[in-house]
Amino acid sequence: MRCSAETTLTPDEMRRLEALPCATDFGLQAPYACDLEEHGPETRHSTLAQMQHYEPGGLVYWWLLWDDAGHQEVRLWPGCDRLVVDETCLLIKDHPGVCDQEIGWP
Ligand SMILES: [Zn+2]
Ligand SMILES: [Zn+2]
Questions:
Q1: Cα–Cα distance for residue pair 47/31, rounded to 1 Å
Q2: Residue 21 to residues 38, 39, 75, 76: CA-CA distances in angstroms?
Q3: Cα separation of 38 and 82, whole Å?
Q4: CA nearest 93: which of 81, 104, 76, 85?
């Protein structure tokens, strides 16, 4: 089961993500849904909010992290990067639960 939490970017967070150089056209879609499997309060909700793509082959991941108390932040953090079949997992590094190469993409 996927976690059912959702959140939206604040205008400041939106501007920050839109202003990044080399950003992919990843979306900035609202609302953002948590990409993790169902999890406890010790793990913050997490979704990939934006990626920067530097040639050659460099990807920088920006994550939206939030909890049920209303604390939210956008932060740089590595991705999981484990291979699932022949695709890279698109969850945050050290995420709980199983890897999934599909979630994270619109
Ligand atoms: Zn969640
Ligand atoms: Zn993973």
A1: 11
A2: 33, 33, 16, 14
A3: 20
A4: 81
Amino acid present at 101: Q
Distance 38 CA to ligand 1 centre (A): 6
d(CA 19, CA 5): 26
pLDDT digits (tens, 9 = 90+) for 6-21: 999 998 998 899 888 8
pLDDT digits (tens, 9 = 90+) for 80-90: 978 777 777 88
User: Which ligand has the nearest atom to the CA of 84?
Assistant: 2
From the CA of 3, the nearest ligand is 1
Which residue's structure tokens are 């530097």?
Answer: 54
Domains in the chain: boundaries: 6-78
User: From the CA of 64, which ligand is nearest?
Assistant: 1
DSSP state of 33: E
pTM: 0.84
Kindly state the tokens that stand for 89: 């997992």
Backbone angles phi, psi at 15, to 5 degrees: -60, -40
